[in-house]
């Protein structure tokens, strides 16, 4: 009996807590799941990006769980403490200011360390601005990529946009209101003039708006009403249009670069060899490029 009691006590002592990754509303406070409320009520600690901001949400739902700050400036130092609490058996919920944690928000170093330590990490899914914008955008959803915030500096931003010049996926970015105009102007300069984009503004809030068109049209849309530059933005860029020939965009790009520099047959032969394509199809395309 004494052995069984000691065994039970050792087992209880060895039990570790869980880290819950809890999604919270991105605007409308009603966009929170029953499970999220239950978890936030029952965990021992809530680690929040901004305790004052999250405090309003918790107060709204009558959640009185202990709240600590965990953000990009203290996460590296704080993660060791959080892991120690989990190892003692405490359950902890991680939340960000809005939406799903780690999606352009703090949390990766902590989650990665928890995984490396063999601790249980449990997602509690819910609101996410990326998915909310994509599903209502009218752009293709079968293949997409989330790229976070675009770089601030002009050259780095141009390089990031040039990198998606030929992508066949919908590309999604977050953007700050003070940079939305400059970013749209850079898109108009770097990508094809007809490339479809969507500006999603203030998602789930009272002044939610979607605009779909070209980057130049989006700039005109902003000009019509200065208030449109305010708020939080998700910027979606549609996939590059496929040419009718079925030739990969990267091959077309290379052919376009070579055609002005050498005879069409030679350019077609080089590209055909590089991409394992039919030379005749490429040669026909050089004729179209020259006529354009």
Automatic annotation (TrEMBL):
InterPro entries found in the cross-reference section: 4pyrrol_Mease, 4pyrrol_Methylase_sf, 4pyrrole_Mease_sub1, 4pyrrole_Mease_sub2, rRNA_ssu_MeTfrase_I, RsmI_HTH, SAM_MeTrfase_RsmI_CS
UniProtKB keywords: Cytoplasm, Methyltransferase, rRNA processing, S-adenosyl-L-methionine, Transferase
Catalytic activity: cytidine(1402) in 16S rRNA + S-adenosyl-L-methionine = 2'-O-methylcytidine(1402) in 16S rRNA + S-adenosyl-L-homocysteine + H(+)
Domain of life: Bacteria
Any one GO cellular component localisation term in the record: cytoplasm
All copies of domain Tetrapyrrole methylase, residue ranges: 19-217
Intracellular or extracellular location(s): Cytoplasm
Xref: Pfam families: RsmI_C, TP_methylase
Molecular functions per Gene Ontology: rRNA (cytosine-2'-O-)-methyltransferase activity
Chief localisation class: cytoplasm
UniProt cross-references to Gene3D superfamilies, sorted A to Z: Cobalt-precorrin-4 Transmethylase, Domain 1, Methyltransferase, Cobalt-precorrin-4 Transmethylase, Domain 2
EC number in record: 2.1.1.198
PROSITE patterns in the record: RSMI
RsmI HTH domain sequence ranges: 247-290
Described purpose of this protein according to its UniProt entry: Catalyzes the 2'-O-methylation of the ribose of cytidine 1402 (C1402) in 16S rRNA.
Protein family membership: Belongs to the methyltransferase superfamily. RsmI family.
Protein name: Ribosomal RNA small subunit methyltransferase I
Organism (species): Planctobacterium marinum
């Amino acid at each position: 009996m004494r052995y069984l009691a000691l065994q039970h006590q050792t087992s209880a002592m060895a039990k570790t807590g869980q880290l819950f990754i809890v999604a919270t509303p991105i605007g409308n406070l009603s966009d929170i799941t029953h499970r999220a409320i239950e978890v936030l009520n029952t965990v021992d600690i809530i680690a929040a990006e901004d305790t004052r901001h999250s405090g309003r949400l918790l107060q709204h739902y009558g959640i009185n769980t202990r709240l600590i700050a965990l953000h990009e400036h203290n996460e590296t130092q704080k993660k060791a403490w959080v892991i120690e609490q989990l190892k003692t058996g405490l359950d902890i919920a991680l939340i960000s200011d809005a939406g799903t944690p780690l999606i352009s928000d703090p949390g990766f170093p902590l989650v990665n360390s928890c995984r490396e330590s063999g601790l249980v990490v449990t997602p509690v899914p819910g609101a996410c601005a990326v998915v909310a914008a994509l599903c209502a955008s009218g752009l293709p959803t079968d293949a997409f990529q989330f790229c976070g915030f675009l770089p601030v500096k002009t050259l780095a931003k141009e390089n990031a946009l040039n990198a998606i010049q030929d992508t066949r996926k919908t590309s999604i970015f977050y953007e700050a209101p003070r940079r939305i105009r400059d970013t749209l102007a850079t898109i108009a300069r770097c990508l094809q003039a007809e490339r479809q984009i969507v500006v999603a503004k203030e998602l789930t809030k009272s002044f939610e708006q979607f605009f779909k068109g070209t980057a130049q049209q989006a700039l005109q849309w902003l000009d019509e009403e200065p208030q449109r530059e305010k708020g939080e933005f998700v910027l979606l860029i549609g996939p590059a249009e496929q040419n009718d020939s079925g030739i990969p965009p990267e091959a077309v790009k290379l052919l376009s670069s070579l055609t002005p520099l050498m005879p069409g047959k030679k350019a077609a032969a080089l590209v055909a060899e590089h991409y394992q394509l039919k030379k005749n199809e490429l040669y026909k395309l050089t004729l179209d490029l020259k006529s354009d």
